[in-house]
Write a structure and sequence with these properties.
3 copies of one chain form a homotrimer. With 289 residues, the first copy, chain A, is an alpha+beta fold. Helices cover 17% and strands 31% of the residues of chain A. Chain A is built from 5 helices and 15 strands. In chain A, strands 2-1-3-5-4-6-7 form a 7-stranded mixed β-sheet, with helices on both faces. A 7-stranded mixed beta barrel of chain A has the order 9-10-14-13-12-11-15. In chain A, a hairpin with a 2-residue loop joins strand 8 and strand 9. The longest helix of chain A is centred in the middle third of the chain and has 14 residues. At the B-C interface, helix 1 of B face strand 2 of C.
Chain lengths: 289, 289, 289
């Protein structure tokens, strides 16, 4: 191959020992240093959370990277294994169970194929329980070396599986928790600018309800207090000062949350500390991006 | 050196921060990208489980790879540190406490030496508590750069420490749980084809007993149900549909398990869902591979 | 650039998914294989423990390495982001919150600058919640490619934040637990040679008190027993034979511990097993290194 090999990233719920078996296969073909771990600690079997993270993380890598994702409770069953070439040259490999759909939509699909295991170099009959190693890793190695996507199988359309979308309804914002991070921040699917900094909102989920301020960053939260922050994913998160908001507020991935504006503005005695940058603005929770 | 440097993999129970100290030593000699994490999350001090995983995972890497393994409760004590050249050119480095024995047997031993710390380049008196960093990493760097195994020390025979073997006895299959993975699958040492797909077997362990079907893959398990599956390691595993079999069945590494054939065949109303590929075959639990 | 790119290491409390976003930014500039994970599992927000580990681990890498560290509860707030060139050519990037101070002191500071985000290549307005991705990773990429530190911002002095120091007072040694490792070893800040092998010491912490022997290595501990060992960090650790000393002794990071010499010597019937190398030496707990 004249072209330089591509980077291959791995995003899985497999833990490190199974992921290492994918690296073993990849390193039979790609040069040292070309396999990058995104994570192997995804919550097991939880496709929407993994799809959200992949959609947010993968596009940060150079275009042309091969992203392999494996969260695959249906492994060995009827769902296809697919490889996708995106409009910017990024490549995706994984099960066609919704995991790749959001990132593929974000980057634009140029072509998608159903991987035919018999066409893989050194193709052997894959195990029924670990296509990550036996199908996706060899397919990714093929693509990393610059070989054609179309040689992996015949064209297919990805099965649509959009992430839950936030909505504005009846004067409030409705979304859901899509990820809980290592710190216990509960990340929602609501775009950060739907609730401007300085707003005081009533947050409701299940039968619970709480008034929280929308602040700029973690150090704006009171000691021992919580609030709403624009996360690094571009969406709102519920956070607690050096503690787990998910545990404090009993929030889980999949929980519906609603944000309702109040007449109050954050200030002295409220949940945020010190001045905020948007203290003079009108609260306009319904403005468009 | 004219030869290209070799990949070095790390398989430890050390956690990431101690493993990073091994990487630091390696990267003083080997080029960027040549150190690959297999895992640093092995159950602490549990040599047989680590030996099983190493024996299954390491041979998947290109021959010529240097595999460093550290599960070493006897560090600083009398057990030797060893380096092994296998018949296919694969190299192994670690304590001579049984950890390397199964993979060395599988690949065949060409030569083994007891590592003499005074012969290591930049050799210094190793700490009594971290030979992974002070002995094994420098020895692996030596080998990764293509230098001779024999320069590391004098010839030695590895201490034999075979893994527990499964057996067929009194009309049943007897084995043990050798690994519990991140999903809670309880992987045994019983070759997968000793219990054919479609069989219904009585599984007994400790004072417990349960009838389970041998199915092909996870999606063949009933919602909320468990069964026996041929794992990606080539041995049988006890699995639960999107849940932990180890927790459900109270199984741990080291537990003896027996599989006893029953007259029943899996079908409607049983523990497996839908047709299985082997539905027409005779149950012959005792056939040889 | 004529120079070879430098290795970049990452030491964070972020977990793998956020760390992957830093890798994404880095790999837009640095070649494959040049990003090395030290750890992403640091205890969240605990700056002194992270600073201790960084000070012990980073200097093991080749001089010239770029070490990025992120434990940053004040992200988005007033604390500066800094880049430091050490006397041996090692580079450090992270928040000026004390995290970098100990390693910078150990290696010697040649120059330090406050990172000006507007000077970063492809500089964009950083998020308020993830400067690791938006400021530190681009700054590290700049340095990894051999570009000048001084271009990142103007000179600054690091905020001093020394680690707690052990002391000898009133005939005893006083220190504190600075790290608990994956095995539950409680690592202190007391230099290992302040308590010689073979000594029997009374250890006190909180209202607890226990007599333990100072032994050489883990295998010198009695089955089911604990002791004091010289850790691979060069400081004393409280360890338990194949168990967690932190759990057994209810020790946490930050706990003050004192070691008081006793007239006893370890021997038969005591907490250590077999002869120790220093059995003939006089106990001199107050000798200087």
């Amino acid at each position: 191959m004249a072209r330089r090999p591509r980077l291959v990233t791995l995003t899985t719920d497999l833990g490190s020992a199974y992921a290492a078996q994918m690296k073993a296969v990849l390193y039979r073909s790609v040069p040292p240093g070309h396999v990058v771990d995104i994570t192997h600690d995804l919550v097991a079997h939880r496709i929407p959370e993994a799809a959200f993270l992949l959609e947010r993380i993968a596009p940060g890598f150079p275009s042309g990277t091969v992203h392999v994702a494996v969260v695959d409770p249906g492994v060995g069953g009827a769902r296809a294994g697919v490889a996708v070439r995106c409009s910017d040259g990024t490549l995706l490999v994984g099960p066609d169970n919704g995991l790749l759909w959001p990132v593929a939509q974000r980057l634009g699909v140029d072509a998608a194929v159903r991987i035919d295991p018999t066409r893989l170099v050194h193709g052997q009959s894959p195990s029924a329980t670990f296509e990550g190693r036996d199908v996706f890793a060899p397919a990714a190695a093929h693509l990393a070396l610059g070989r054609k996507l179309e040689r992996l199988g015949s064209r297919v359309r990805l099965t649509p599986m959009p992430l839950a979308a936030a909505a504005r309804r009846r004067g409030q914002v409705e979304g859901e928790v899509v990820h809980v991070d290592r710190f216990g921040n509960a990340i929602t699917n609501v775009p950060s600018d739907w609730v401007p900094e300085g707003a005081v909102v009533q947050v409701s989920w299940g039968r619970r309800r709480r008034t929280l301020s929308r602040v700029r960053t973690y150090s704006d939260l009171e000691a021992g207090g919580g609030g709403l922050i624009g996360s690094s994913f571009g969406t709102l998160e519920l956070s607690w000062r050096e503690d787990s908001a998910a545990r404090r507020l009993l929030l889980q991935v999949g929980d519906a949350v609603a944000f309702h504006p109040t007449a109050r503005r954050s200030g002295r005695g409220s949940h945020i500390r010190g001045p905020t940058r948007s203290a003079g603005k009108t609260v306009n929770i319904a403005r468009r991006r």
